[in-house]
């Protein structure tokens, strides 16, 4: 009953309308499927995404080759394997690929299969998915890092910073966290509309008004928080994803304006906006290989969550370097950056062992798949980043967390931040 009978893949579409991989795994009585997400702002060291660059019918973005590899090589390798042995399944995938960055099979092919296997194991065990990861009891809900204004690679405006987010620190439960974010977003909508700016949204559901000043975006958010009856820096924290890889040239950065300035000046500007806007979290403040600048920022600020995304790409070896270098105190976790569930869990375990906060994250090209919501609860991760309260592929994850909180009942608690 626990043996894999068949592995099947198909090309489906993500939230940006681009092709992606869906894998489905079957045992004798059950099946489960999973969809691999895709990023726009990607780190150099991320696992390889296999696309059919020569297929002009799909503008070089199709994934038929990855699908074919699942339906042939991967299916043959996994047939007969125990669905509950996730480490064995993932090890077979890693060995079959044989490259550090998953260039032969493609991380998109491998991850879709790995996630589907994890889901199917939970179904066969008749357990909720969140109960099959690292935590065995005392499950906690993560605080949402909710994207409310999009810039950078996620929007067609002039904002340098890629994501402006809010974290509802005053919330005592997840349902209340969602209510707080909902109220702020609705008030932000009215403020943007009143200024005659576009209320269209970016890739991750945050508003994408045609403004080009980080401070203008931050002022709008502070006003929305105040209008909603909350206190900035106490009830709600403003958090940023800078995505500095996109803003780096010749050892200088254009984070705070279009002008490229030194690291020292960039840090001074960070300190200014941290104080002015009571910012509590900054993701990817510097470029992915600029270890010294990360260290300088860590030494220059207190009680700020400094999050490595492109810096670590959910890679254990890079996380170890960052830990020794004192580069950050938190890590963003993206399954498709590394390519398998087991490797992702290894990174989470190590990060938590060294005292890092773990933040489970979606990608800008995502899907209706809610795997990361269960992953956040099942790994005791402090926060989750899955976009705004717009676009159903983002909201699906929040809705799943609401369901999990309901299932847990009186046992449900919010995590520490």
Q: How does this structure look, described?
A:
With 417 residues, this protein is α/β, with parallel strands linked by helices. The chain has 2 domains: 6-126, Enolase-like, domain 1; 140-414, Enolase-like C-terminal domain (TIM Barrel, Alpha-Beta Barrel), CATH 3.20.20. Helix content is 38%, strand content 16%. The protein is built from 12 helices and 16 strands. The strands form 4 sheets. The protein has a 9-stranded mixed β-sheet. A 3-stranded antiparallel β-sheet has the order 1-2-3, with helices on one face. Helix 8 links the parallel strand 12 and strand 13. The longest helix is centred in the middle third of the chain and has 21 residues, at 174-194. The protein starts with 5 loop residues before the first strand and ends with a strand. The mean pLDDT is 96.
């Amino acid at each position: 009953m626990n043996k894999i009978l068949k592995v099947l893949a198909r090309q489906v579409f993500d939230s940006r309308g681009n092709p992606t991989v869906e894998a489905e795994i079957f045992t004798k009585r059950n099946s489960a499927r999973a969809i691999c997400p895709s990023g726009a702002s990607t780190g150099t060291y991320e696992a390889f995404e296999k696309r059919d660059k020569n297929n002009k019918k799909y503008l070089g973005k199709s994934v038929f080759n990855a699908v074919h590899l699942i339906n042939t090589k991967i299916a043959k390798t996994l047939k007969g394997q125990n669905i509950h042995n996730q480490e064995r399944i993932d090890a077979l995938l890693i060995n079959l690929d044989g490259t550090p960055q998953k260039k032969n099979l493609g991380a998109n092919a491998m991850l879709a299969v790995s996630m589907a296997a994890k889901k199917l194991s939970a179904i066969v065990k008749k357990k909720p998915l969140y109960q099959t990861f690292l935590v065995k009891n005392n499950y906690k809900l993560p605080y949402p890092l909710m994207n409310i204004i999009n810039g950078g690679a996620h929007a067609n405006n002039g904002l340098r910073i890629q994501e402006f987010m809010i974290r509802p620190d005053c919330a005592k439960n997840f349902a209340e966290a969602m209510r707080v974010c909902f109220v702020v977003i609705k008030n932000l909508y009215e403020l943007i509309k009143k200024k005659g700016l576009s209320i269209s949204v970016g890739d991750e559901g945050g508003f994408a008004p045609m403004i080009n000043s980080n401070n203008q975006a931050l002022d709008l958010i502070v006003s929305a928080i105040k209008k909603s009856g909350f206190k900035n820096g106490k009830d709600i924290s403003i958090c940023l994803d800078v995505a500095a890889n996109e803003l780096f040239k010749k050892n200088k950065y254009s984070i705070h304006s279009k002008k490229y300035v030194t690291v020292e000046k960039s840090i001074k500007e960070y300190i200014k906006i941290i104080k002015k806007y009571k910012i509590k979290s900054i993701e990817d403040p510097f470029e992915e290989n600029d270890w010294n600048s990360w260290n300088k920022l860590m030494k220059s600020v207190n009680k700020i969550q400094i999050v490595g995304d492109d810096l670590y790409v959910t890679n254990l070896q890079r996380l170890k370097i960052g830990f020794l270098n004192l580069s950050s105190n938190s890590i963003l976790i993206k399954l498709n950056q590394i390519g398998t569930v087991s490797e992702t869990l290894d990174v989470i375990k190590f990060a938590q062992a060294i005292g890092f906060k773990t933040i489970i994250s979606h990608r800008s090209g995502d899907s209706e798949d809610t795997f990361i919501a269960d992953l956040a609860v099942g790994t005791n991760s402090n926060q989750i980043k899955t976009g705004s309260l717009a676009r159903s592929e983002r909201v699906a994850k929040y809705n799943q967390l609401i369901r999990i909180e309901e299932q847990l009942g009186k046992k449900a608690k919010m995590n520490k931040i």
